Amino acid sequence: MSTVIGATGADLLLPVPDRDTPAALVLGAPADQSLDDALETAWSALQAVGHLVVVVPAALSAAHRGRLRAVRSLLESDRMALVDIDLPPLATALLVEQLRRISPYDLGPGVIASAARLLAHYLHAGAVLGSVAKLDRVDVGLGTHLKSLLPGARFAVQAAPAASLTQLADDTRLPGPDYATGLAWAAPAGHSGRGHAAGHPPAGPGLGEEWVKDRLAADWKCQYVRQVPLPEGSARWWGTAKVVEFAAYIADVGVLYQLVGSAHRAPCRWCGLELVGDRCAFCSSPLTTAAPAPAPAGNPSRRHGG
Prior knowledge:
Layout: E1 3-7, E2 25-26, H1 35-48, E3 51-57, H2 62-75, E4 80-85, H3 89-102, H4 109-120, E5 124-129, H5 142-147, E6 155-160, E7 164-167, E8 182-186, H6 209-219, E9 225-227, H7 234-238, E10 243-249, H8 253-261, E11 266-267, E12 274-275, H9 300-303
Parallel strand pairs: 1-2, 1-3, 3-4, 8-9
Antiparallel strand pairs: 5-6, 5-10, 6-7, 8-10, 11-12
Helix pairs in contact: 1-2, 3-4, 4-8
């Protein structure tokens, strides 16, 4: 393994699905981790493994983002990449997990770093919300704002790969993946459920967890349902603590490897690393010629012969 994956918070490191998933490191916010500790954490990873890829959420605070840049600058290392990703917190955590799972393979650090944008296209992420009054990630009309004031109102919101918002009802349907996925969901502490096969009818009002793990999982033909801890930033991202977050993701590491490994690669003109896309995540150098954009969401098995 030549690449270690980093996250900006321990809440973005989900319980690993198998024993083969490599460990990751956390470069926390300045209030949670001293600069010396952050430098030691990053330096140790670079010395032991070779390259470090940190997934940086778009919603990260300016102070935390500045800390990451300071660590990279003080280490004077072009072997540390900061990869910006604009996804909801649970989907971001799943992306970190996917990168961890492919990191032991012979893809190279440049490909693994730039694969983050490619894999992000294959995440279907959203949430069931009890209020949209403070939601600013998706356009919310005045009528919907008024409906959110009604007792018991719930809304199904999709943020990726496209944004949509609808009031939750028995006939609510969301556009989902047309390839094999698992479904991860998370709710605030005190709201729990057990992972099980999809297809059972929804029961009980709750915050929407039953609709997610039963109705949505069946509609999206998810192979299994998995409950995970709710990331700390979810309430802030969605504008309410009354949230059940969900994301469909490719769980098969063989499919992930094939998807990334078969993408068009090109060498970076500055540092020489192979990469996917039009700019190196490590040295920020653009390609001299435009490379094909990452493939849009679709059936990865059908596209790549799996």
